[in-house]
Amino acid sequence: MSPYNPEPETTPMDEDSHTGASEASFPHDTLFEIRQLHVGFGNASQPVVSGVSLHVRRGETLALVGESGSGKSISLLAATGLASRQAQVSGAVLFEGQDLLRLSDRELRRLRGARIGYVFQDPQSNLHPYQTVYEQLAEAILVHTPRPYPGRRALRQRVTELLTEVGIRDAAHRLDDLPRQFSGGMRQRVMIAMALALEPALLIADEPTTALDVTVQAQILALLKDLQRRHGLAVIFVSHDLAVVSDIADRIAVMQEGKIVESGSTEQLLARPRHPYSRRLLHAAGLAHGALPGTSACDTLSRPAAAPLLHVQGLTRSFGERPVLSDINLEIAEGEIFGLVGESGSGKTTLGRLIAGLDRPDHGTMTLQGAALQVPYPPATRHAIQVVFQDPYASLNPHRRIGAMLAEILRRRGVAQPAREIERLLQAVRLDPALAQRLPVQLSGGQRQRVAIARALALQPRLIIADEPVSALDITTQAEILQLLLQLRRETGLSLLFITHDLGVVARFCDRVGVLQHGVLVEHGAVASIFAQPAHAYTRQLLAAIPGQRLRTPPPANAPLPTAALIPIVSPSAAPALCYA
């Protein structure tokens, strides 16, 4: 028997039993149903997806949640005939009474788009860069329309209606724009319009908000809920973040290592998760009761007042006629984690670049430990201020081994024999020293980000500027990296300027926070104070957009609390609570 078509479980569990999954008793109004799906590649003895069963009813939202590599995306790609030809797929996938695994490629193409819409994570990769939005939407309509469309004018009108429905303003005048002329959130709206072009019955949204600002994410989630209500759609929402899905899902299925380990109603699963992996995801998402300031013993990370390490006064920067930063004033103390939040385009990264000496301000002054900073920085200052970027793969030389990269940095510090120091650095960021012999491509995203942190630590900095260092990582890996940074701060006295668009992360990680809007620092102060009494309307807007709001109220007195064990940071699968003594 094929390893990808094993005998059924002898004691299958009902998918809605909250502890497992099978096809035993799906409701009569089920629209889409996966039964005992197995997916494998090549001669591997173990399938990447093993015995997955799930269903979604008409008008319902099912969230499929798990870490990167858990099998979420490949399960749905295989179920809808979009997996690579090398994939070995078995089981049954029923949609409106048809088994999709028995359809020909032509029949599947006819079905997809017309009855099943797909929204992927990265619209930039899924929209043709040199075709207008009209051309791409029109093609999606024409490919799946069995009869000739009634004229170009009617087609343009239909595309305009679709773009208007997904919230693109002045849609009629944007039909001939290219994807690059839209923001990330607007491009995702275009992808949603394309998926809805022929009014499908099922919409599969695979991490559709992962790369978006928290406010844009909230807008996309609200749009999906509104479209579902108006069109009666069934939605499968794929995500690594329980906080995001908690606001939109009727039911949740949790995947780990190619299997569904738990499923049930959103309220039931989040209030009383039974599987340890579900509890770990819950804690990593900050949804365990008391995870935000004011509700937990570790609600603030405030430390005793310390002398200012960095002082910024009157900092201004413009690009041409466009002001990017206006009169920025802030201080970062020794050993402090200062969060800088705002939407894309607010000026966060520009401010980080100015402080790092990668760009010159037009006006204003900066001092580090009382000494004036002048660009270009001398070597001692460059060593004292280091940067960890959002995408570690882009910032690491793909052709050099990890040890060689670290050795080069250490020699700049005057370390003649760097082997022992490389081992110490890798251990400091909780990596096996044997990884020094690997290339960046041979590491996971979380491991690459740890290497980037080790590279920054190699020069013994006083301040690290971390620019969106966890936004490209899944939720449990985020928790591991944040826990690592907290531990390094505790051990070395590091200061951090933590740049992010996610106030949920700031709440669990930073001592103080500054809010940037259109290049202006509209508010700053202690995290607990800002969250409890935000003074500026923009701050209140950002706070309102944090996902998982309804789960962050204190539980009833008799409600059992999740009991996720804290796993040491050395475990790559750990997602410990972000707290220190």
Overview features:
Rossmann fold, alpha/beta, disordered N terminus, 32% helix, 20 strands, 6-stranded mixed beta sheet, 581 residues, disordered C terminus, 3 domains
* Major sheet: 6 strands, mixed
Strand order of the largest sheet: 6-7-8-3-9-10
Total helical elements: 20
Indicate the percent of residues in helices.
25-40%
Classify the fold: give the CATH topology of the largest domain: Rossmann fold
Mean pLDDT: 85
Give the total of domains.
3
Structural class: alpha/beta
Q: What is the radius of gyration computed over CA atoms, rounded to a whole number of angstroms?
A: 25 Å
State the separation between the terminal residues, measured CA to CA.
54 Å
Strand content: 15-25%
Which word captures the global form? globular
CATH class of the largest domain: Alpha Beta
Gross CATH architecture of the largest domain: 3-Layer(aba) Sandwich
Q: Would you report the number of β strands?
A: 20
Which parts are unreliable, with pLDDT below 50 for 5 consecutive residues or more?
Answer: 1-15, 17-24, 288-302, 553-581
Q: Name the CATH superfamily classification of the largest domain.
A: P-loop containing nucleotide triphosphate hydrolases
